[in-house]
Amino acid sequence: MTTILRRQQGAVGHPDVRRQSLRVALAATAIVGVAYLIVAVAVVGLATKNLTDQVDRRLSEYVAHGMRSPGPVGGDFEPGPGDRPYEVPILAWGIRTDGVVFPSPAASAVTLPQEFHDLVGTASATLSVGSFRLLGVPVSDGIIVVGQSVVTVAESQGTVLLAELAIAPVLLAAVFLGAFAIGRRAATPFEQARRRQLEFTADASHELRTPLSVIEANTSLALSQPRDEEWYRTAFERVDNESKRMRRLLEDMLWLARFDATQGPPNAEPVDVGVLAVATADRFSAVAEARHLALSVQAAPADSVISVPPEWLDRLLGVLLDNACKFSADGGTVRVGVTAEGGRVHLTVDDSGPGIPTEERGRIFDRFHRASETKAGAGLGLAIADAIVRATDGRWKVGSSAAGGASMSVSWPRAFSGPRETAPRRTTQRAEQTP
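Predicted structure:
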């Protein structure tokens, strides 16, 4: 678990991830900023139009209710008995056809510009006392022009602009930080995959270099001068061993490559772990006999059926038994146990080897990592086993066996009868360490 977290943190903190995340955040902030500017301008425009329309309606109401009659220009103008009071003064001017202007009392000190003496409809104007909205209505002997100050419209515009300016930096900062965080989260898996591919390539090259060097050295020596028959036999045995080692390494690498490229696991089937464990142990009986190992299988009679791809479970059992036989000393013991407890089936492989140091248990599933250099191997077996366990909703438990060696245990949800425990879909915890 610690190793996984360290890798994730390393990928998140990688300069490429930060650089790409920063670019994404800046692009997202720029797009949102432009969109916000457009929306802000539209909001101000709509607010101004709505407020101006309200002023126009108020002027129309004044004209409709404020005149006693549509009689001669110069008559008295006063608010009628309308339901809506007029909160601000409304100025009025009557312009006769001969050009004489009759201002209302409120407009006596305000001069109506000449250009508006023949106004019909609405218009905006700047008078001596400020900005006004004017409405001109023709009557029998002239034109009535009424006007209302639009200072409230300007104040409302200022309020909306101030609110938009206050919201803008907060919104853009939130977008930048959110996009940066999302960019880092989205880029991390790709960066992890890229780094893992580079590490895999480097480790594979290193592992292949050794057998190739041995093969090249033996062939060069064989061709350099005539040798006796025994020397050639020994050289060919070395070449054969290294060739088999390369083949195993390439097969494991191809399996992992296919696994990484697979969109999902193959069709799962009900598999009895106990039956498959007995069959796998039978395959390794010759290996155990050659090493004088006591290989035993204890499978409980209870239901131990799980739903997994059979070929994957067979590969997992092969990896665990191969490691147990490989690391157990001659004359040691290898025990395979299958039990069903509650809603889970447990598979345990114990050996009498040197065991796994506590500090190494968090890294034994890393590709090309070997906890011990005393035995040959590329370090891909447990990586394959871990990939299978994670893809089949299994849980690892790594500890020490009663014989002092390693104890590798995996549990899965049972496929059929019996109460079930809730298992995570794909656990990220690689190994649980037990004393």
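Summary: The radius of gyration is 44 Å.
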